[in-house]
Design a protein that fits this description.
- InterPro entries: Est1-like_N (IPR019458), Est1/Ebs1-like (IPR045153), TPR-like_helical_dom_sf (IPR011990).
- One of its GO terms (cellular component) is telomerase holoenzyme complex.
- This is Telomerase activating protein Est1-like N-terminal domain-containing protein.
- It comes from Hippocampus comes.
- One of its GO terms (molecular function) is telomeric DNA binding.
- The chain has 187 residues and is an all-alpha fold.
- It has a single domain, classed as Serine Threonine Protein Phosphatase 5, Tetratricopeptide repeat (Alpha Horseshoe).
- It is flat.
Length: 187
């Protein structure tokens, strides 16, 4: 397990380096970003305590989402940019993808660690078999309840961050999202 953790950490560092390589084509950077998201999601679900100790959730947000959002925002605000409309469309698509990622991650974390959020429809009610931490889910380490609450709150905070940015592009969504987040804090 220790060697797997070291290997995973090395993979993450290599992917982050790829994403900051200015010689890399946009499609290759996108592929590296997707791989980093998948890797960090797996780390968070498999060994949440270790992942939180290594601040994987912060790295995930900063390297897979925040940096790209900031770059696209800057390009979209530049009125002299001849590709401004395209950049704004890319920003909207990226925000949708980020929102989808964090929604799906939150759903998976709640399902795997049996966290009950008031608004969340349980997987079993949707006909999806639940993967509890002790149901043979491939060596999942059962975390402390406080860690589960923290990571769920982390996801909700970033869904709010993403929603605020989306609000600039599509007014009206933030009010509904803010109410949803306020109503669904883990207790």
């Amino acid at each position: 397990s220790c060697s797997l953790v070291v290997l995973t950490s090395r993979q993450a560092e290599a992917l982050k380096a790829d994403m900051t390589d200015s010689k890399l084509a946009a499609a290759e950077a996108w592929t590296s970003r997707q791989a980093l998201q998948d890797l960090y999601q797996k780390m968070l679900v498999t060994d949440l305590e270790y992942a939180l100790d290594k601040k994987v959730e912060q790295d995930l947000w900063n390297h897979a989402f925040k940096n790209q959002i900031t770059t696209l925002q800057s390009q979209a605000k530049n009125r002299a940019n001849p590709n401004r409309s395209e950049v704004q469309a890319n920003l909207s698509l990226f925000l949708e993808a980020a929102s989808g990622f964090y929604t799906q991650l939150l759903q998976e974390l709640c399902s795997v660690f049996n966290v009950d959020l008031p608004c969340r429809v349980k997987s079993s009610r949707l006909g999806i078999i639940s993967n509890g931490p002790n149901s043979g889910g491939g060596g999942i380490v059962t975390p402390q309840p406080s860690s589960c609450s923290y990571i769920c709150q982390h996801c909700l905070v970033h869904l709010g961050d993403i929603g605020e940015e989306e609000e600039r592009h599509r007014p009206g969504r933030l009010i509904a999202l803010g109410k949803w987040i306020a109503d669904n804090q883990p207790g």
